[in-house]
């Protein structure tokens, strides 16, 4: 609803909107910027006035006399007999003065706007600020806290606009697609805007450095192709915050990355040789299968796994790889179904809460999320995870061996922390990690059957939730895999199949 302070000079009986003869309001706004001082500029003014008057909750014009403050300012500025262009100019001028007067009042601390006024929609202030920014060629536009449910037409006319603040407008609900035409934007602050969706075109802004979507509690998904670990995104206070933190690159130093890259390159070169040996010598293939099954049983927390169930999941992965099927969350859930002995029924996702929350953000090495998600939050979080997976599977997203291993570790970590299944989450996450590695031409996770290796500590929730612990898992896995794969290629292993 528009503030009564703003409606006084803009009632339909005083300044009725007369639409431009051709083209929509947004087209007129764009053309107007190219020819300031022409009738097209007046058409933009009229489009802006129409936008102000389009507020369904707009109150009728205030009929009182002049008084102090903004109400007196605008009641004194009424123009009743002007021609169309003069009315448009008068409207624009009043909006500019209104924005300037509002700024002075806010500086004095005499008034609070937007949400502080009970959700009143202050569209004329928004128009005034837009027009002032247009006239001054300002690189920043501040529309925060005006209670807006829509943005004014013509934002795209600000050719040098770099920073747009639309925060604290909880009725917006969505970012308008036309923001994608503001090609110079570097930063968009859309905190506390009630946003539930983001147009995919926004990500194509060529200079965008920051898109702050924090504190939008109903934002449960990003457009297809957007990565949750995109460094331009700010998602604090949204349902996506936790999983976005889980998928961020691990805290490894350049030196550590260099060493790990050398190990991974060695593993990548050795894997085709090991595959050839597995085909030629069934004994070696059995050794590899047994190592994979033992690791899967070692990471399981309920002690209910069997080697046959693990092999069932591995067989499914092999078939999907042969078919070129992509790694999806639905197929990951099927892996869990196989690992959990193919239970009857269709409900795969867990329905109970978990009491053991993640460490808080102040804890040492804490994960980015605040706790295990509730069952109702799982579908959108898994959808976000799927979007992240699909970005990594894109044809133009070829990964080097270390990046592929890091992606696989992050996938494992996300699944263990989210715990989407009733049980068997760790072995299911391990199977998904194996698949993520194999689709990039790397071996599945192969670790020696060594009691001295703290497999359970590394792979279970308590050892993977924190970023530092996940980085340790990556380093230990790479180091031991390099040595083990080399041994398998050269000599095979004396694995006791009767354990």
Automatic annotation (TrEMBL):
PROSITE patterns: FIDO (PS51459). Residues 327-490 form the Fido domain. One of its GO terms (cellular component) is cytoplasm. SUPFAM superfamilies: L domain-like (SSF52058). Gene3D superfamilies: Fido-like domain, Ribonuclease Inhibitor. InterPro entries: Fido, Fido-like_dom_sf, LRR_dom_sf, LRR_domain-containing. Keywords: Leucine-rich repeat, Repeat. This is Fido domain-containing protein. The lineage of its organism: Bacteria, Pseudomonadati, Pseudomonadota, Betaproteobacteria, Burkholderiales.
């Amino acid at each position: 609803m528009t503030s009564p302070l703003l409606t006084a000079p803009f009632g339909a009986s005083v300044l009725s909107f007369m639409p431009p003869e051709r083209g929509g309001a947004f087209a007129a706004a764009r053309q107007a910027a190219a020819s300031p001082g022409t009738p097209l500029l007046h058409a933009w003014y009229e489009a802006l006035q129409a936008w102000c008057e389009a507020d369904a909750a707009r109150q009728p014009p205030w009929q009182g006399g002049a008084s102090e403050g903004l109400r007196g300012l605008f009641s004194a500025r009424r123009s009743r007999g002007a021609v169309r262009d003069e009315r448009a100019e008068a409207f624009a001028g009043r909006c500019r003065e209104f924005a300037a007067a509002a700024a002075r009042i806010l500086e004095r601390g005499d008034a609070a706007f937007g949400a502080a006024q009970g959700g009143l929609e202050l569209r004329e202030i928004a128009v005034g600020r837009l027009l002032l920014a247009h006239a001054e060629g300002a690189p920043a536009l501040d529309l925060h806290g005006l209670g807006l449910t829509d943005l004014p037409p013509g934002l795209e006319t600000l050719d040098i606009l770099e920073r747009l603040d639309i925060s604290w407008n909880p009725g917006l609900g969505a970012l308008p697609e036309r923001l994608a035409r503001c090609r110079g934007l570097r930063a968009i602050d859309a905190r506390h805007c009630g946003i539930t969706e983001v147009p995919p075109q926004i990500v194509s802004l060529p200079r965008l450095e920051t898109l702050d979507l924090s504190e939008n509690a109903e934002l449960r998904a990003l457009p297809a192709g957007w990565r949750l670990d995109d460094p331009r995104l700010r998602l604090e206070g949204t349902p996506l915050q936790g999983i976005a933190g889980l998928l961020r690159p691990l805290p490894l130093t350049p030196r550590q990355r260099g060493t790990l890259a050398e190990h991974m390159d060695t593993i990548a070169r050795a894997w085709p040789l090991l595959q050839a040996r597995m085909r030629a010598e069934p004994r070696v293939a059995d050794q590899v299968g047994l190592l994979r099954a033992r690791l899967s049983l070692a990471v399981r927390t309920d002690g209910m796994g069997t080697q046959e169930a693990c092999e069932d999941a591995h067989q499914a992965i092999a078939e999907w790889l042969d078919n070129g099927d992509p790694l999806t969350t639905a197929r990951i859930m099927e892996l869990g179904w196989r690992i959990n002995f193919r239970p009857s029924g269709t409900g795969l996702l867990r329905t109970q809460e978990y009491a053991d929350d993640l460490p808080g953000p102040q804890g040492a090495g804490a994960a980015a999320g605040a706790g295990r998600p509730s069952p109702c939050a799982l579908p959108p979080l898994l959808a976000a995870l799927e979007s992240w997976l699909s970005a990594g599977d894109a044809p133009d997203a070829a990964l080097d061996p270390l990046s592929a291993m890091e992606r696989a570790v992050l996938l494992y970590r996300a699944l263990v922390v989210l715990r989407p299944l009733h049980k068997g989450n760790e072995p299911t996450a391990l199977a998904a990690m194996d698949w993520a590695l194999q689709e990039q031409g790397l071996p599945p996770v192969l670790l020696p059957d060594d009691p001295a290796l703290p497999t359970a500590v590394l792979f279970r929730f308590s050892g993977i939730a924190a970023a530092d612990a996940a980085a340790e898992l990556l380093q230990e896995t790479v180091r031991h895999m390099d040595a083990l794969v080399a041994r398998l290629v050269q000599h095979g292993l004396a694995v006791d199949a009767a354990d």
